[in-house]
Amino acid sequence: MFKKILIANRGEIACRVAATAHRLGVKSVAVYSDADADAKHVAACDEAVLIGPAPAQESYLRADKIIEAALATGAQAIHPGYGFLSEDEAFAVACAEAGLVFIGPPASAIRAMGSKSAAKALMEKAGVPLVPGYHGDNQDAGFLRMQADRTGYPVLLKASAGGGGKGMRIVEKSADFNAALASCKREAINSFGDDKILIEKYLTRPRHIEIQVFADAGGNCVHLFERDCSVQRRHQKVLEEAPAPGMTAERRNAMGAAAVAAAMAVGYVGAGTVEFIANQDGSFYFMEMNTRLQVEHPVTEMITGADLVEWQLRVASGEPLPMTQEQLAIDGHAIEARIYAENPEKGFLPSIGTLRYLRTPQAVAFALSASVALKDGDENGAASGHVRIDSGVREGDSISPFYDPMIAKLIVRGKDRDAALARMSQALSEYRIVGLATNIAFLKRLIESKPFSNAELDTGLIERNQNALFPAMQPASIRTLALAAAALLDSERSGRSAAGDPWADTSGWRLNGGLQRQLDFSDEENTYAATVRYRPGGWVIRLGAASSMMTLVERDASSLTVKLGGETVRGTVIRDGDAFHVFAGGEHRMLDYIDPMAHAGQAEAEGGRLTAPMPGKIVSVLVGKGDTVEKGAPLLIMEAMKMEHTIAAPAKGLVEDLLYAVGDQVAEGAQLLSFKIV
Question: Helix, strand, or coil here: 503?
Fold first, then answer.
């Protein structure tokens, strides 16, 4: 076993590898950029080395700096994690030339499987069925469009060197092909340094099923069963589960055997994933092989009990696989939800900000490294099973525009799928974040939706169920407003100064009657005028026609218990400036307190401004000064967090001025152009 390893990555995977290394008595070295100087993974390792500025191209993608850091600290091996250089053949070769062990497959296997096009050619030769399309070297735009026309629409454009859903576009008709190809190539070159594109027939209602494989240097190879990763948005996985619902033993054996054969064909060593696209009738096609550990590997660990990171370290140090195929078995059902800093209601736009408040499901130790579990409960599954949280951030950390906006992976296990679903719903209810937008509420709706609960899975599930998954916002209830009002009134009472000064008294006493005041709150859709009358021991709160006596029963830190009429209401209220975040009944509601004094004299924002929704770079300007455009017309394209975002015209209008050019960096909220509605 190694004495010291360097982790050439960041975030939750770097934390996970460090935890496993420590458990095995192996010292770890972190690398970090300027943006990650105070990051959790830096604190998790024994040593840390600064390797460059915030942009990944100048830090985490600099193989030379990473190898230099490994040699300087005396590390014997490098763990690449996933993303960045994890599937970079040149990096694996450079590690070997520097006398360092690359904790991953041989460079030859990365070369064979790292290109989607080359991998498909290899699988075609091996007799594995492939999706119809084109995956050759000719990248002429006209030729590619001809191949797409021949394949038949819709088609899927994919970056040959890609992964993680980046560099992918669905094209519905020939007229849209050229614009989609240009956008796909831009994203591919920015994310992977390679703009080669392949074309596949886009299957309707397909499932995305992948097989975890593992091989050692002695020629032994096993599969650790399958994961269903069908539920996706923008071609990126949202929920993953193992085993795949509805999987028969015969189909599992066939897919497992095909995956092992693929790995053996390229002399594979270490952890890898063979991905298949499957029809509802059970037929499947090879899609690609990821020559690394996958983000969703914890669901495999939860149903097999295997620590795949430990397996990686042992195999890389020359040890044989810890288990044979016959020793591996499935125990229970696991689901993973990716918790992102993003706004699902706004097209899953990434959110940037600080984690001002972070509380995760209460947990105790579990068997696997870097895992946590809730206590066992009764047999009905409502409180049984385990919960695991893999995260690379802490309260007070920031989500920056430079890297993936993942906050954590929430993984649950139950004795069966129904138990796992109940556990995930409960755990999501207990996850509380303030400071930026998250997808937690969306994940809870998704988990509880009828299609997902019934395992009606395919890659279009989210798009097909927009109405159910993105319901219209309902007005805040009097219970939610009561909790926000009680928190505000209690903070005024507890924060009063000049004890004994009658002018500073906040009890609401008046000579000829009690104080009555109006508390105004708002959310994205509504404004609420709650009338509060002070009474001995509490308040009377009225919202519209509803009126109740409100008494604060208990307040402990951020937790509140309020007596509202004859009902006891419990929740957590976090105040962030004028925003009151109310967590109650498994829901999170943000209400802005409209302070009449604090906001007096503020004018409405001027019209005709189109602003940047987040920090980013201008990659394409699609209009010119003086152009007249229709509502919805694309004006320019920004890139942020490795994704492209199109800024569209809010109405028919005139482009009066362009304030930025291609390549310019812009700050969040910056005016991009002057636009006049006509």
Answer: helix
